[in-house]
Design a protein that fits this description.
330 residues; alpha/beta; Rossmann fold; four-stranded parallel sheet; 15 helices; 8 strands; globular; binds iron/sulfur cluster
Length: 330
């Protein structure tokens, strides 16, 4: 299979059916031992300091991991992806586009999937076959999610990691399955988190300082029981066909569409507060207005830029937020 870099969660079933092995450039970037070097590659190329770190990291990852074919999302992800694709194209990379429909509509999604399948020289029938093969891996990720919020056995970081990895299953389905099954089996020997732990929801794009944030929260007696987008990446509502699966996936659509699922999950998981992560220079920061209006829980808006670990100021904000929820509960 030929490697293809993906700039966000896309219908990987179609890529695999076309003979490609999808690798999520965001995961390669943030999992790299030196993410700052990937960002610096982009800045040397001319990406401004005032552009999103994820975009720059994705650019750097394309080069570091020598990916010649990139699938980017023209509509339904990030306005920066278009410019990114232009730069990559000018450097000789083969950039293929995919567009989510303006709003979740079965017929329009079907059309977009057919366009993608034909661009990759495959068919939706083949992609459906791949979908059925992948479903058990998606089920595993959701089992881990349930072990997080229902059984209180899986940590915030583990929940984030196993869900965020479902965008590409780390490029190796068998290795993902082995790791997930190992964790599920290990849960049998764990003690649940005590009820004194504050239960939090996390909404917004995955944090640039994920490991540091989740570990810090748990040291302070709070845990994330709902990672919104990471949960969405796992395709929690697979529906009856590929088109249905990708219109039930909320990220490409409006904040109000995302909110329906957010509110439901926060209630179901008994969240006591919400962290809304925003990335510096990202247009999605504006969604904070809608979320603050509609979510009836304390919200902390936390901004990240190029700090791959929580800085002192962020730690103070997070700690004060947890204390406030704790006092509220007494
Ligand atoms: S964080 Fe925002 S600006 Fe950055 S890549 Fe994601 S959607 Fe685009």
């Amino acid at each position: 299979m030929k490697n293809v870099g993906i700039t966000t969660t896309v219908p990987i079933e179609v890529l695999i059916a076309g003979g490609y092995r999808p690798l999520d450039l965001n995961n390669l970037f943030v999992g790299d031992p030196h993410p700052e070097e990937l960002v610096s590659m982009a800045e040397k190329k001319g990406f401004p300091q005032t552009s999103c770190t994820w975009i720059k990291g994705v650019y750097g990852a394309c080069h570091k991991y020598a990916l010649d074919t990139i699938l980017y999302v023209m509509h339904g992800d990030c306005s920066g992806s278009l410019e990114l694709a232009e730069v990559l194209r000018s450097e000789g990379k083969n950039c293929i586009s995919f567009s989510y429909p303006d709003f979740p509509h079965l017929g329009r999604m079907q059309e977009q999937l057919e366009n993608l399948a034909s661009a990759l020289g495959t068919s939706l029938k083949e992609a459906e076959r791949v979908r059925r093969k992948i479903l058990p891996y998606r089920v595993l990720s959701r089992k881990l999610d349930e072990l997080t919020w229902k059984e209180d056995l899986v940590s915030s970081w583990e929940n984030h990691f196993f869900l965020v990895s479902t965008s590409d299953f780390e490029g190796n389905f068998q290795a993902y399955r082995r790791k997930a099954c190992g964790l599920i089996a290990g849960c049998g020997k764990r003690r649940p988190y005590p009820p004194s732990f504050i239960r939090l929801g996390y909404i917004g794009v995955p944090p640039i300082f994920a490991r540091s944030l989740y570990h810090f929260l748990e040291r302070k007696g709070a845990r994330v029981v709902f990672n919104e987008l990471q949960y969405q990446f796992s395709m929690p509502s697979p529906g009856g066909c590929l088109a249905q699966q990708y219109i039930d996936y909320t990220y490409p659509y409006s904040s109000s569409y995302r909110l329906r699922s957010i509110l439901l999950e926060l209630r179901k998981r008994k969240a006591q507060g919400v962290i809304h992560y925003v990335q510096s220079f990202c247009h999605r920061q504006i969604s904070d207005i809608v979320f603050r209006k509609e979510i009836d829980l304390p919200i902390l808006t936390l901004e990240g830029n190029t700090n791959y670990t929580l800085d002192q100021q962020a730690m103070t904000k997070v700690e004060a937020f947890i204390d406030m929820i704790r006092r509220r509960g007494k």
